[in-house]
């Protein structure tokens, strides 16, 4: 349990703002350190075989200007690729999302840490007014990214992978999800969120990712 929660605490979470082709957007931002070198982390986020082991299986034309699709239905286009520092993609979910292009993007930035390893930054921008935010707040995407970055940590360290559905069914998985939802609530408050909305969003996110309470 301690190692899992240590990984959760290793990330810094903030909310911000951005402008997308579709208009004003909010951002959820994750920053953390990995002990692996930059080239290894870059390979893990761009090589299809390795990406599929910590994120989801991916298919498509994986080059600048090409498109991709993940096994879970997330899909988009590769908008920027500057090895090994920056990758930016559009990020849509479900066939209906194609009717509203330019509403969601994910950017990953890598840099060498002062004492080695890699400083990892992920920014997910979503258009203001997207339907999940009123109910779940930043936890709508934030808890999922926390789970993926937990998996990436294990994969970079020793090739270990994690089944998210199995993990979330375990007591430590539910605790991870609860604490992640609470951490995104704190980031939401710090970003100027209404306290009542934040509390309701944290409760909804917790119920989604960690159903069953402490059972």
Automatic annotation (TrEMBL):
It comes from the Bacteria. The lineage of its organism: Bacteria, Bacillati, Actinomycetota, Actinomycetes, Pseudonocardiales. Belongs to the AHA1 family. InterPro entries: ASHA1/2-like_C, START-like_dom_sf. Residues 35-149 form the Activator of Hsp90 ATPase homologue 1/2-like C-terminal domain. It comes from Amycolatopsis endophytica. This is Uncharacterized protein YndB with AHSA1/START domain. Gene3D superfamilies: 3.30.530.20. Coiled coil: none annotated.
């Amino acid at each position: 349990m301690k190692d899992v929660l240590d990984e959760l605490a290793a990330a810094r979470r903030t909310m911000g703002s951005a402008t997308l082709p579709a208009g004003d957007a909010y951002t959820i931002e994750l920053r953390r350190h990995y002990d692996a070198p930059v080239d290894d982390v870059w390979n893990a986020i761009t090589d299809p075989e390795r990406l599929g082991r910590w994120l989801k299986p991916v298919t498509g034309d994986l080059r600048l200007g090409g498109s991709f699709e993940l096994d879970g239905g997330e899909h988009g286009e590769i908008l920027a690729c500057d090895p090994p520092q920056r990758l930016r993609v559009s990020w849509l979910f479900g066939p209906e999302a194609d009717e509203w292009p330019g509403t969601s993007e994910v950017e990953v930035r890598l840099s060498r840490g002062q004492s080695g390893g890699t400083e990892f930054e992920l920014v997910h921008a979503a258009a203001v007014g997207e339907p999940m935010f009123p109910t779940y707040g930043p936890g709508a995407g934030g808890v999922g990214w926390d789970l993926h970055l937990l998996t990436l940590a294990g994969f970079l360290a020793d090739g270990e992978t994690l089944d998210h559905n199995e993990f979330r069914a375990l007591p430590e998985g539910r605790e991870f999800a609860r604490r992640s939802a609470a951490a995104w609530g704190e980031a939401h408050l710090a970003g100027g969120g209404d306290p009542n909305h934040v509390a309701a969003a944290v409760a909804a996110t917790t119920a989604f990712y960690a159903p069953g309470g402490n059972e």
